[in-house]
Amino acid sequence: QTFVVQKGPIFSNLVLADEINRAPAKVQSALLEAMQEHQVTIGSETFPLPEPFLVMATQNPVEQEGTYALPEAQTDRFMLKVIVDYPNREEELLILRRMGKTGTKLEVDAVASPEDILAARALIDEIRVDEKVEGYIVDLVMATRRPEAYGLQLDGLIQFGGSPRATINLTLAARAAAFLAGRAYVLPTDVRSIALDVLRHRVMITYEAEAEELTSESIVQQILDHIPAP
Questions:
Q1: Does residue 111 contact residue 128 with C-beta atoms inside 8 Å?
Q2: pLDDT tens per residue, range 20-41
């Protein structure tokens, strides 16, 4: 199910696609317009989406029957794919205390305004990326396409490597990691800390890799372990 929250004549800043792999192909296709064009069309009317604009989607890995696999072109448009595991004991207790009631009232306080987010984006663009770190980012992505050129024994295991969006988003995510760490420059550790989240949904593995019980994550980790950081 895809929800677009509307306030008066303008749309809010968030599109939430819940269990997107259960949405029909037409719904998934409509989401691409929001992600790529920053607009939504209803009937004959087109509504621009305000900045900053965010698409957040979830996938349920359980019960794949009746689901619709996302095409590569759509998954590539998501900057990050984050794996949400089971909560730990303390988190489970917090969930219990908040949601274990028939009537739940949660108070949500804004911690930043849209203007704050846009200002932070502008600052992130100023975070310095050294040429050696740029080369490291490019090598990581190129190694997903031509692993043999980097001395990796991954022949027949990768169907598709990372696209240029992978390079762009890995750079942006590394800049954001440096910003959150209070630095004005990117370190290779920033790149490594976010690389799995940026690449796990962009590296498509073959049936041979699945037969060997490999995953895109394990292949990306092999690349991270093999390519030396500057």
A1: no
A2: 777 777 777 777 787 778 888 8
